[in-house]
Design a protein that fits this description.
single chain; about 150 residues; mainly alpha; Actin-related protein 2/3 complex subunit 5; cytoplasm; cytoskeleton; ARPC5
Length: about 150
């Protein structure tokens, strides 16, 4: 004989709260990181510590942020760092990054291609070449399939 399953006492969580119509995103928790500190980045650039500035900017990337202004500010700071590093130093800089940082770097490179400025596209292509040499095609696939944009 079958048991009566019309009772909802066995449920430990309310699954209806996850329905798209009922879901409310909490703005304070979902805003994510605020991005890199521009003053600290500029200080590192002025001291010639480009690799440290690059690591800092990639480590504080607002990947999970929903605030577009934060993402745009982080892009501007990151492009400033990428364009400040000379072509001869790019390979050394990429060699000091982790694979996760290279994926984030690729995201910024592709975002930089969306907003070209004078001379930036050629420099970003050099960055792309060096990052591809380290990260391989897997890095490109992860960036293009990732839904979290920077």
């Amino acid at each position: 004989m079958a048991k009566n399953t019309s009772s909802s006492a066995f449920r430990k969580i309310d699954i209806d709260q996850y329905n798209e119509d009922n879901f409310k995103e909490d703005e304070t928790e979902s805003s994510g990181p605020t991005g890199p500190d521009e003053g600290e980045i500029c200080a590192l650039l002025n001291q010639g510590r480009y690799i440290e500035a690059l690591k800092l900017v990639l480590g504080n990337a607002p990947v999970g942020s929903t605030n577009q202004q934060v993402k745009d500010n982080a892009l501007a700071i990151t492009l400033k760092v990428l364009l400040a590093i000379k072509s001869a130093q790019i390979e050394e800089a990429v060699g000091n990054l982790s694979l996760d940082d290279i994926d984030i770097l690729m995201k910024y490179i592709y975002r930089g291609f969306e907003y070209p400025s004078e001379g930036s596209s050629g420099h970003l292509l050099l960055w792309h070449e060096k990052a591809f040499n380290v990260g391989g095609s897997g890095s490109i696939v992860r960036v293009l399939s990732d839904r979290m944009r920077v």
